[in-house]
Design a protein that fits this description.
dioxygenase; metal ion binding; globular; alpha+beta; oxidoreductase; Double-stranded beta-helix; 10 helices; 4-stranded antiparallel β-sheet; 391 residues; TauD/TfdA-like; 28% helix
């Protein structure tokens, strides 16, 4: 474009953005572009304002503001709305004030540090109930400076139900404790979004982990809201998942080859005593809150195993894997998550029915040491009649 052409364009009402074609524009050409872009920007803004006009008695319908293919922010908003647009209910906040407890909320819909609680003490029933209600409302809760020994940690876990021992890891001196130790000879491997032990017929209700040793940098754990993840799915996918189930197994723990492989006779013994392959729905109704959550573990779920639970008809490998490729990205959206920085004596108590978690493996070769106990759960189910309204 010549300078004469650019000068002519400046003196016309042309809105042709072709005046800018490369990164080597003259000052005059750039001026043309900026004038045209500014004018169009105002028109586009006004068009969008008209699209967002209030409806239904002056209220904006959020469904009309989000693209059908990108409902991530809407999922968070809908989950927060059914929480009353507040991190915790007024009743729970009143009880916290009465107990002298301070809440530190880490995410809009997920994650709260509970300050001013000493878990070494024998907790009265009303304290146990308060902690449980906070867990149900916030999905994962945290405590600082507890420094429980193994027996104290087990005793705390028992206040919330029976405990599950874990057969595929190093037990502590107390058999209900799982030692999770990573360092120079054992890098962290839990850096994938997951909910625990879906290979069990009755996966654990929740996990209670305490930090024993923290690396100098990194080692955080992230938690993602499975209820908001479900609400943020495209509506067509929500409908597609209503009756889908898949088979989960613990083959991941048996996959080592070479010198690290388990003896064949031990593998046979494991499979004889622990069912290898259990069916769970991809949508799970929380048995206490009634909310629907996206429920899967990409490492335990067989990616070709999806089937219709009404007819037992398999989807086929291609469709099954295609659905899971989309679902396995959902919990990784930052909008759904909170991040917890471990310190020695810190405790995290997460609800496996309501969140997934991700242990960041960003501290190698330093050592990170957690101790975990798990509270027994029940058989996952999906009951759409119990779905809690998101509006």
């Amino acid at each position: 474009m010549t300078h004469l052409q650019a000068d002519t364009a400046l003196n016309t009402d042309s809105t042709n953005l072709a005046v800018v074609t490369t990164g080597t524009n003259t000052p005059t050409e750039q001026a043309v572009y900026n004038r045209v872009a500014t004018g169009l920007g105002e028109k586009i803004h006004q068009a969008k304002v008209m699209q967002q006009a209030p409806v239904d008695g002056g209220q904006i319908d959020p469904e009309k503001l989000f693209m059908p293919s990108n409902r991530i922010g809407l999922g968070i908003a809908q989950e927060y709305a059914r929480m009353g647009n507040t991190p915790v209910t007024a009743a729970l906040q009143r009880r916290a004030t009465e107990f002298g407890v301070k809440f530190e909320h880490l995410g809009l819909t997920v994650g709260t540090v509970i300050h001013n609680v000493d878990l070494k003490q024998t907790l009265a029933p009303e304290w146990v109930q308060f902690i449980r209600e906070t867990l149900l409302e916030r999905k994962v809760i945290f405590f600082r400076d507890q420094n429980l020994d193994e027996d104290q940690q087990v005793a705390f876990g028992r206040r919330f139900g029976e405990l599950d021992a874990f057969p595929f890891g190093k037990p502590g001196e107390n058999p209900y404790v799982l030692e999770i130790i990573h360092g120079q000879a054992s890098p962290g491997m839990e850096n994938g979004w997951h909910t625990d032990v879906t290979w069990m017929e009755k996966p654990s209700l929740g996990s209670i982990a305490q930090c024993v040793q923290v690396p100098p940098y990194g080692g955080d754990t992230l938690f993602s809201d499975s209820h908001a993840c479900y609400l943020g799915l495209p509506l067509a996918m929500q409908a597609r998942l209503q009756h889908l189930r898949g088979i989960n197994d613990y083959g991941l723990f048996l996959a080592a080859t070479g010198p690290r492989a388990l003896p064949a006779e031990l593998v046979d013994e494991i499979k004889q005593q622990i069912p290898f392959g259990v069916s769970h729905p991809l949508l799970r109704t929380h048995p206490e809150t009634g909310k629907t959550g996206l429920y899967l573990h990409g490492g335990f779920l067989r990616h070709d195993s999806l089937y219709d639970g009404r007819t037992n008809s398999p989807l086929g490998e291609a469709e099954s894997k295609g659905i899971l490729r989309e679902l396995l990205q959902q919990h990784s959206r930052p909008e759904y998550s909170c991040r917890f920085k471990w310190l020695p004596g810190s405790i995290a108590f997460w609800d496996n029915r309501a969140v997934q978690h991700y242990a960041a493996s960003d501290y190698y070769p330093h050592e990170r040491h957690l101790r975990r106990v798990t509270v027994s759960g029940d058989v996952p189910f999906y009951d759409p009649s119990r779905q809690v309204s998101a509006s």
